[in-house]
DNA sequence: AAAGAGCCCAACCGCATCTAA
DNA sequence: ATTAGATGCGGTTGGGCTCTT
């Protein structure tokens, strides 16, 4: 026996790095059905080559239905600053004051925005309050930090009106669609893998805190209500080029949705995400950047459709059912992808540097 | 257009704390 | 009371993105 604590998992056996949509889907699907009583065992049960800690982190910070994405409001930021003054770096405690916000997110916003912003504030006489220095409160962004290039973004926090909307919208939608498709099909097909698991009924235990409130999957739900399982107000954020460039997986998934134990399928799905060439990625980004202004954002959907057609041709997949035929007129396709009851919450503060955009994908409650 | 610099954030790591046996 | 395993927490970082030159 070696000294020290045993690692939580065999590092050589687990995948690291960004999560693919297929992995996300697996995790969400599994937790919906079984909850997360045991993070350590979850990856194996769900067929994920991930450390339990990684699954937990992914779920809590990203996939959890009640996670609130989007830019922090001025009020939230001020509250964070105040709480930090009293609590220090107790991110989880600070986060507890912001339902839906994660400690990681607050920690990030502190380290990237607030801490720097405070550096430009000077203590205001005796009141203890902080007041922006006159130089900072200036509307000009050109004089401050002249040598700091992108540090100007800090003060651009005050220029929230310049909303940028970009390519990731599509992936967010794709994931939601995929969720919905899988949810329908998962429960349309057998649940044999669920039955094999011990205490799959854990997800039906009414007081099981490990199961999120929406995850009480009612297999008796008609198809047209299953989509509501994902009507949580969290949003899906994508940050990798790979993910951005592989939209429309919902149509692929619609062909055949296996159980989470069907490794072949999931491996295939993972593999689909590496099909696109770098050239296509770059082209896609160029096109997307062209369209990254309000009002033309969803022109990108056309590109998605093109990509999907290409993919399906390559794979010999049939057109998806339920009116998702690929030869739909483009405007029809767009209207499908952006249901009219979807509320897109355009961020009030652009993430000037990150290129991250957040949306509330699901109809507001 | 390309390269470099800087920024952002998702995810990792390791330690702390909790819990059950 | 002790111990091992599981989970929580906070610090850190790598990769991708945007902006500037």
UniProtKB/TrEMBL annotation:
Residues 11-63, 64-114 form the Myb-like domain. SUPFAM superfamilies: Homeodomain-like (SSF46689). Gene3D superfamilies: Homeodomain-like. Residues 125-144, 186-214 are annotated as: Disordered. Residues 186-195 have a biased composition (Basic and acidic residues). Its main location: nucleus. Keywords: DNA-binding, Nucleus. The keyword Nucleus applies. It comes from the Eukaryota. InterPro entries: Homeodomain-like_sf, Myb_dom, Myb_TF_plants, SANT/Myb. It is found in: Nucleus. Residues 11-63, 64-118 form the HTH myb-type domain. This is Uncharacterized protein. It comes from Hevea brasiliensis. The lineage of its organism: Eukaryota, Viridiplantae, Streptophyta, Embryophyta, Tracheophyta.
């Amino acid at each position: 026996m070696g000294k020290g604590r045993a690692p939580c998992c065999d590092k050589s056996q687990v995948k690291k790095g960004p999560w693919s949509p297929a992995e996300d889907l697996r995790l969400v699907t599994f937790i919906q059905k079984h909850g997360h009583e045991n993070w350590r065992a979850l990856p194996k049960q769900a067929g994920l080559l991930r450390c339990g800690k990684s699954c937990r982190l992914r779920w809590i910070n990203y996939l959890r239905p009640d996670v609130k994405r989007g830019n922090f409001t001025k009020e939230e930021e001020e509250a964070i600053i105040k709480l930090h003054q009293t609590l220090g770096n107790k991110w989880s405690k600070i986060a507890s004051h912001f339902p839906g916000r994660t400690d990681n997110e607050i920690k990030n916003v502190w380290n990237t925005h607030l801490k720097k912003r405070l550096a430009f504030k000077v203590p205001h006489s005796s009141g203890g309050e902080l007041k922006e220095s006159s130089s900072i409160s200036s509307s000009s962004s050109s004089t401050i930090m002249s040598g700091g290039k992108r540090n100007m973004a800090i003060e651009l926090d005050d220029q929230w009106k310049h909303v940028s909307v970009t390519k990731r919208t599509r992936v967010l939608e794709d994931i939601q669609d995929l969720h919905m498709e899988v949810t329908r099909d998962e429960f349309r097909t057998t649940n044999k893998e669920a039955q094999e698991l011990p205490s799959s009924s854990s997800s039906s235990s009414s007081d099981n805190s490990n199961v999120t409130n929406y995850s009480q999957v009612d297999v008796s739900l008609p198809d047209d209500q299953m989509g509501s399982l994902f009507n949580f107000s969290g949003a899906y954020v994508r940050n990798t080029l790979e993910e951005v460039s592989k939209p429309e997986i919902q149509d692929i998934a619609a062909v055949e949705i296996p159980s989470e134990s069907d490794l072949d399928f999931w491996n295939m799905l993972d593999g689909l995400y590496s099909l696109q060439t770098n050239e296509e990625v770059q082209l896609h980004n160029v096109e997307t950047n062209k369209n990254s202004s309000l009002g033309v954002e969803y022109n990108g959907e056309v590109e998605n459709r093109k990509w999907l057609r290409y993919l399906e041709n390559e794979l010999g997949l049939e057109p998806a059912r339920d009116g998702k035929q690929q030869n739909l007129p483009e405007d029809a396709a767009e209207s499908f992808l952006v249901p009219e009851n979807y509320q897109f919450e355009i961020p009030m503060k652009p993430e000037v540097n990150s290129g991250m955009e957040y949306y509330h994908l699901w109809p507001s409650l």
